[in-house]
Amino acid sequence: MRETLRVAAYAVVVRNGQILLARSPDGRGGHEWVLPGGGMEHGEDPYDTVRREVLEETGYRIDVTGLLGIDSRRSTFTRRLRRPKDHQGLALVYEGLVTGGELRPEVDGSTDLAAWHDLGALAKLTKARMVDIGLELWLERPITGRAEKAGTKS
Question: Are 22 and 106 in contact (CB under 8 A)?
Answer without folding.
Answer: yes
